[in-house]
Amino acid sequence: MRSEKFSGLRRQIWMYFLPALCVILAAGAYLIYNAENDHLQYQSAAGMFFAVVSLLAIPFLFIRNIIEPLEEVLSAACKITEGYLKETVPIRNKDEIGKIGEQINALSVNLQEILLHVWNHSRDSADILKRISNGDIPSDMAHDIAAVRHSMEEMQSMVKTFEYYDIRMDEDRLMAEEAPNRTPPPAPPLKGEGSSPHALSGKGDGGLGRREKEKIS
Amino acid sequence: MGKRVLIVDDSSIMRKMVRKTLESEAITVAGEAKSGKEAIELYQNLKPDAVTMDITMREMDGFTAAKEILKLDPKAKIVFLSNLDEDKYSADAKQLGAIGYVNKHRSAEILTLIKQC
Question: Which domain holds residue A118?
């Protein structure tokens, strides 16, 4: 905990503050030492005191208004990433940090909705399939099959509302995203199982994907 | 003229999904609100024919927002949507004067209720 207090932005603000404090103290000491009379010496000392107090306020205000809210956003984002979707970012202000917090909260809401959507559809389908596998064959089998199919299509429909990195959707197939400098994919095998060599799971082998290119640049 | 619907849900993905469902049957989406408070404001401005209202929203839940809307317009037609257990909320929804309660993933039922409005 002690190391966190002096890491990242907190350490940086103190690194900027301390040299500035040294300069003010040195300038103040010089003015006091070279003052021609007591009155000027007193004025220089008072000026230095107010300068130091004002300067001290900057890092404390910066920590309270920027670093601490950012740390709250970071902490909540880490928990959401780990799967604690009930975690929310406290929104203190409507500034940029508050807006980042709102977006992280919205991301968590969306993730929850997607999971519940998948859960509801898969539960319905699993119930039907369980019944059939237990030997309870319904008289109107077509109705049950249509329900399972509908559930699958609804899940696919949700998947299609997103845009993906390195992947594009071509009708119902997942394809490697085409980059301008992508090398042509290898020729398809003469005999296959119907799966195109272009259909990838996101580990693009036909050239560099966006993330790989970002890493290189 | 087709029906105009206001979609209320705090999840942008669900709003998108509901919009897609409605537009597939040529139902017009009058607007989208991401919280109960926004829903009340938009309802007054847009005067939609029906509202699809999510129940669990972080800022103001769907029941509270629906009560406020029904205070403003007792004839408001509200369909509650949720991922939650139907038995738990369907009675509350009917008692409140809503048109119905549908699980969000049952798009056909959503359309049926909206068309009945």
Answer: 88-154
